């Protein structure tokens, strides 16, 4: 059975992510699997305590790239895809990124969801600053660069 028109929802927000709404956006009667990735702010990174994170983005380009990623996943896996990323300050325990992918079967949902978050981290111009007791660090890829503020 063919999947109904693919949903591709991409959004940047400074408000807490409504995870239920994102999941419901991809729901369809023919989809028996919904894979979800929730990126949550943790209390440590690279051996340092983290007090909070701040995310910044080049918003028009970030949305354009997120849309491309979601459309590619929708086409490649026959998926319904929703991705939301927060910007601004987030405290430990808050969700910074939430991705929901619905497909008829779980294998495709898991593959597509993992591909979406990995590709988002590679392509989308969103930058993370970790605020720690000993200073602030901009994170670029796997490297931390200490901020001079």
Characterise the protein shown here.
The protein has 149 residues and is of the alpha+beta class. It has helices at 19-26, 59-77, 106-123; strands at residues 8-13, 33-40, 44-45, 48-49, 52-57, 80-86, 88-91, 95-103, 126-132, 135-140, 143-146. It has a 5-stranded antiparallel sheet. Helix 2 (59-77) packs antiparallel against helix 3. The protein starts with 7 loop residues before the first strand and ends with a strand. The model has no long low-confidence stretch (mean pLDDT 92).
- How many distinct beta strands? 11
Radius of gyration: 16 Å
The CATH architecture is Alpha-Beta Complex
Arithmetic mean of pLDDT: 92
Shape: elongated
Determine the number of helices (DSSP H or I, runs of at least 4 residues): 3
pLDDT < 50 stretches: none
Q: State the domain count.
A: 1
List keywords for this structure.
five-stranded antiparallel sheet, 11 strands, Aldehyde Oxidoreductase, domain 3, alpha+beta, 149 residues, 30% helix, single chain
